[in-house]
Amino acid sequence: MRFSGWRVLREGLTGNRGWQAHWRDPDPKPEYDAVIIGGGGHGLATAYYLAKDHGMRNIAVLERGYIGGGNVGRNTTIVRANYYLPGNSEFYSHSLKLWEGLEQDLNYNAMMSQRGILNVFHNDAQRDSAVRRANAIINQGDDAEILSRDQLREMVPLLNYDNNRFPIQGALLQRRAGTARHDAVAWGFARGADQRGVDILQNCEVTGIRTEGGKVIGVETPRGLIRAGKVAMAAAGRSSQVAAMAGLTLPIESHVLQAFVSEGLKPIIDHVITFAEGHLYISQSDKGGLVFGSYLDLYASYAARGNLPMVEHTMEACMAMLPAIGKARLLRSWGGIMDMTPDGSPIIDRTPIEGLYLNAGWCYGGFKATPASGQCYAHLIATDRPHQAAAAFRLDRFETGRGLMDEEATGAQHNLH
Fold first, then answer.
1. pLDDT of residue 251
2. 24-29 contacts, C-beta under 8 A, 24 or more apart
3. pLDDT at 285
4. How are beta strands 330-340 and 347-350 bridged, if at all?
5. Cβ atoms of residues 153 and 159 within 8 Å
């Protein structure tokens, strides 16, 4: 079933009785060529690209809950490619290019909106850093502009430019950045993978990883042992727990990152805006709600819920940057579990166990990485060689110290990236 304007019109005139489920609900087979642990955006994208680019169809995606219920539905939907360091820069550049053609590729409306992202700076040091970052982005082949205070004021007049503590001096603008509807991205990849023969098994938790002689042979689930020659972990905030089933200890801490949405308002913010003092980032959804978030909860946790101190901090940052929204009511919040590495950069690599692969450590960057992560991970699984765009995301950099990518320049501390 393909979506088109004519199809929507026809279904609207005939009672919408012709729509079909976007993916099947199959029983697990005894054995697959590859099993992917995690039915989030990265796991589903990996299955999609394994089938589409490499012709692998005997694949299962195992999700402990339901599609769209994990981190892929628990973020602030931002898409961007404004990274600084080699390794991250080319990967996220590749990902943004995939985002720009994703809806056509999937034949699915992911509500991709390239509204631009503005990274506001407040002092000379932050401006110098923004200039260096802009030059790195341009050298990578992407777009970046430095806006003066007057140029930014003309574009976004509502910001508090004369805050005594955090006066705004200008911003780094990337016009091709924006937002996409997060759960629709998962649904689009799930539908595309299912159409290519991939089995998506919801409510099928992996309870063990079976190995023999240093090689993976399958996974244990409440629905029985599922054998597979290749097992790919894409479990986001639960990566350390899943890897421990195979006896692996990952250089990852899991922390909660909260996000918030306000009641629906008339359009007041046309871009994604980040506020350097307070780490606030905010945009406005198509329904009118302001979607925003700020820092991690600084203690390690697997609890996908928030707490009041971070709510207070985030609202303070909102008031410092945008006092005009002070009377807006907060509608709801949610928490995602971030898999934080010591250098703030991800891992796409083989593990010491033959046939067992790892996709983890996405820190704040998981959603925007979704299509490139899936494509690069699929390339690694299918060929046993790293994709060029993700060649720097090696697991052993945390053991040897070679190739560390400390994007935030905060040192080896998981919760500061």
1. 96
2. 24/194, 24/199, 24/200, 25/202, 26/199, 26/200, 26/201, 27/223, 28/60, 28/199, 28/201, 28/204, 28/221, 28/223, 28/224, 28/226, 29/58, 29/60, 29/199, 29/226
3. 94
4. unpaired
5. yes
Instruction: With H, G, I as helix, E, B as strand and everything else as coil, classify residue 362.
Output: coil
What was the pLDDT predicted at 364?
83
Q: Is the CB of residue 230 less than 8 Å from the CB of residue 381?
A: yes
Cα separation, 176 vs 15, in Å, equals 38
**CA–CA separation, 215 and 220 (whole Å):** 15
> How far is residue 34's CA from residue 57's CA, in Å, rounded to a whole number?
9
Nearest-5° angle of CA 123, CA 127, CA 131? Answer: 175
The reported pLDDT for the residue numbered 57 is 94
**3-state class (DSSP) for residue 237:** helix
Q: Locate tokens 């309870």: which residue?
A: 207
Question: Would you state the structure tokens that stand for residue 32, as one six-digit string?
Answer: 């697959």
Judge whether 291 and 265 are in contact, CB under 8 Å. Answer: no
Q: Is the pLDDT of residue 416 over 80?
A: no
Q: What is the mean pLDDT of residues 70-83?
A: 91
Please give the pLDDT value at position 197: 97
| DSSP per-residue string spanning 110-163 | ---B---EEEEE-SHHHHHHHHHHHHHHHHHT---EEEEHHHHHHH-TTS-TT-
Q: How far, in Å, CA of 382 to CA of 397, rounded?
A: 23
- What does the pLDDT average to over 140-167? 95
- Cα–Cα distance between 152 and 273 in angstroms, integer? 11
**414 band by pLDDT with thresholds 50, 70 and 90:** confident
Q: What's the rounded mean pLDDT across residues 340-361?
A: 97
- Contact (CB, 8 A) for 180 and 96: no
Task: Give the mean model confidence (pLDDT) for residues 317-337.
Answer: 93
